[in-house]
Specification:
single chain; about 240 residues; alpha+beta; Arc Repressor Mutant, subunit A; Beta-Lactamase; two-stranded antiparallel sheet; about 45% helix
Length: about 240
């Protein structure tokens, strides 16, 4: 495990536990030897990222990481201009809205605005998803020239994420070609068995991002075209620079 993985594992352990921990508890939660955790904790305390909370010497993160993240996010080259559009889209559809970008052979979620419904699709920024089983992934693949896309698909494994995942290279190629013509891309239980999603590609800063609306099948199944129309409107507004 690389040093950066170990340090991030410390913070992920706190995220999972949701409480202060002793050094030994933290090492166990992070899957690290106590000696290794001690060295990482010492540096993080010296840099102001961790503090001791009690006589038991429980450890917990300070706000430094949070404050740093706020400053970084505020200057995000993509999301700063997206936020009003995303909020309006969430409010209009009452479903979860996601912004994603292709990162090698995966999609990384850059922003997730969860819908207000009690039963909803939930995820988080930083989540990594397959290209072939997500609506944003299909939208990203659609920007590859057809012959190059066919070559890439033939070489790529297409594992079944659910029973509904498209695992045939030819079937996926044909689906993307058809969706490219209509302008939006759909997954029906292909990444999460009971979740449907609709996505469109969006040009921004000489790059391409994907915006998706995702929700449970019982609400989304009859709303695909309506949601797609809202997404296409949002794409046009973003690309034209309208507020």
């Amino acid at each position: 495990m690389k040093p950066t993985d170990r340090a991030l594992g410390i913070f992920e352990a706190f995220e999972t536990a949701g409480r202060p921990m002793t050094l030994s508890e933290l090492a166990d939660a992070a899957g690290l030897p106590v000696s290794t955790s001690h060295g990482i904790v010492r540096v993080l305390m010296e840099r102001g990222y961790l503090y001791l909370t009690s006589r038991r010497k429980d450890l917990y993160p300070t706000r430094r990481l949070y404050d740093m993240a706020e400053k970084i996010i505020a200057r995000d080259p993509y999301l700063e201009r997206f936020e009003p559009f995303l909020e309006r889209l969430r409010d209009a559809t009452q479903e979860t809205v996601i912004v994603g970008k292709r990162q090698h052979d995966q999609i990384v979620y850059l922003r997730v605005l969860e819908g207000p419904q009690t039963i909803r699709y939930s995820s988080a920024a930083g989540a990594l998803k397959p290209l072939h089983s997500t609506s944003i992934g299909k939208a990203m693949l659609s920007r590859v020239a057809p012959e190059e896309l066919r070559r890439q698909l033939v070489q790529a494994p297409l594992p079944a994420v659910t029973d509904h995942t498209v695992t045939s290279h030819e079937a996926l190629f044909a689906e993307i070609a058809l969706a490219r013509e209509r302008g939006y891309f759909v997954t029906r239980g292909e990444s999460v068995s009971d979740v449907y999603a609709v996505a469109v590609p969006v040009n921004v800063n000489r790059d391409v991002l994907g915006i998706a609306v995702a929700g449970p099948r019982h609400r989304m199944e009859g709303e695909i075209e309506r949601v797609a129309a809202r997404l296409l409107d949002v794409r046009r507004e973003i690309e034209q620079g309208n507020p």
